[in-house]
Every structure is written in C-alpha cells, then in structure tokens.
Amino acid sequence: MSFASSRLNPVHSLGFITAYGRFVQFCLSVLAWFFRGPGIWLRWRLIAPQIYMVGVASIPVIGITGAFIGMILALETFVQFESVGLQGTMGAIINVSVVKQIGPVLAAVMVAGRVGGALTAELGTMRVTEQLDAMRAMATDPIAYLVVPRVLACAIMTPILTIYSDLLGVFGGYTFTVLINDVPSTQYWGFTAGFVSWYEPTVGLVKAFFFGLSIGLISCYKGFTCRPGAAGVGRATTQAFVASFLSIIMINLVLAQFLNTVYQWIYNDVATLPL
C-alpha cells in the first residue's frame, strides 16, 4: 500500500479523530482543575519552580532574539522608506509590528522551543519509567500535580515574556533607526505615539496568553501519551514543538480576525482601526 493510500485509509483517519478526542478530553481535565477548589491555586510550591523555568530562565534568549528582530525589521524597512523619503515614519511601522505581531509570536515560539520540548521530555520520561502510574496508584492525580502547574506557568509567563520581547524589539528598532541612521528621535516617537494606542499592546498580550496556554497543553499532552523508549520520548518532543508552532500560527490568525472585528463593532468605524 502506498503512502498516499495509507493516509486515506478509514482506519488511519479514525485514529486521527480518536487522538484529537483524547486531546480535547485531556484539555478539559486540565481546565477543570483550574476551578476545582482553591487548593491548586494555593500550591505555589508547585507552580513557582515552573514559573522560574518558563519565565526567568527564558529571559536571555527572548531578549537577544527580540533585540535583533527589531534591528532586522528596521534594516529592511529603512531601505524601502528612505527611497521615498518616509524614513521619519518608521517608528509607527516598526513598533506596531513588534507590539502587535512579532513580539507575541516570537516569544511564544521561543517558549515552545525551549520550554515546550523540556516539558514533553520530562513528562514523557516519567511515563516511560512508570512514575505516572505510581502516582495514580497512590491516589494522586498527575494532572493536578504535574500538568496544571506547568500549564499555568506557560499561560502566566508568556505574556510577561512578550512584554520583555516587545521592549527589546522596540529598543532594537530605535537603535538602528535613530542612533545609526540619524532619523530624528522626535519623528520616530511622534509617529509611534500617533499609531500605537492601548489596542496594540492589548492584542499582543491576549494572543500571548492563549499561545502560552496552547503550548503548555500540547507539550504536557505529548509527554503523557508518548510511546515507550528513548525514541518515543524524542519523537514526542519533536511532535510537541511542531504542533505548538502550528497552533501559534492558527491562534494568531483567529485572534487577529476576532479582535479586529470586536474593535470595529465597539467603535463602529473601520477607518480608525489601527494598522
């Protein structure tokens, strides 16, 4: 049987549907623990180490990539805008792009690559070594003690890392535009103030929250369902990053359309919609 025909096999398709159903069931189980009494919210001894791993330990890579992305965006934009004499407006383009799109997506991708794989490998190893079964045998729900703190840490820290990425991206764009290419600082920040309102940072932070939530859920699910052996853990880690990256792209599109629609509905004026 060829590869193409095997992908169209009803049994193969049923397996995909079953896998998605199990993932939805897993997500509902995790979300149910968020509201099942105050106990899990008070267990900061479980959440604090995960916040450190997801957030504090990710600061260097987020900062470096954010700053360089801002400078690269300024470099490519400056060449085009200088040719038409609009280099003074670069602050609006760079900062809207960084705060609304690039910052949240960049921070989420870094979290997915650095943290998501680690979560999958850690939980996958616990599954392979039957530590999860041992917890269930002792009447301890591994979802409450292992998954919920990690998902919460991802959902909480991704927006915070996004703010950090935004600041470094804006600084990188300012450095290249104003300090290197001598664009007047008053023009740079003047156009920025005219185009960046409360809407852009809010959109970025809302996106970052859902990015972090999806990364935590996908990574933990892949760890809980990985196949036995070192190869199974490695395959699950790769699948977790790929699935997290795809979810980031899809959530970004859906939320961008939804939030733009809400903005237009509230203000009832398409012309005032920020870029």
Describe the structure.
Helix 4 runs parallel beside helix 8, helix 6 packs antiparallel against helix 11 (229-267) and helix 8 crosses helix 10 (199-224). This protein is elongated. It has one domain. It has 275 residues and is mostly helical. Mean pLDDT is 84; it is low at 1-5. The chain has helices spanning 3-7, 10-34, 39-42, 44-54, 59-83, 90-128, 131-137, 142-180, 185-195, 199-224, 229-267. The protein is 84% helix and 0% strand.
Briefly say what this structure is:
The protein is mostly helical. 84% of the residues lie in helices and 0% in strands.
Main pleated-sheet profile: none
Indicate the radius of gyration in whole angstroms: 22 Å
- Please, what is the average pLDDT? 84
- The structure class reads mainly alpha
Instruction: Tell how many strands the DSSP assignment holds.
Output: 0
How many domain modules?
1
Distinct helical segment count: 11
Order of helix and strand elements from N to C terminus: HHHHHHHHHHH
Shape: elongated
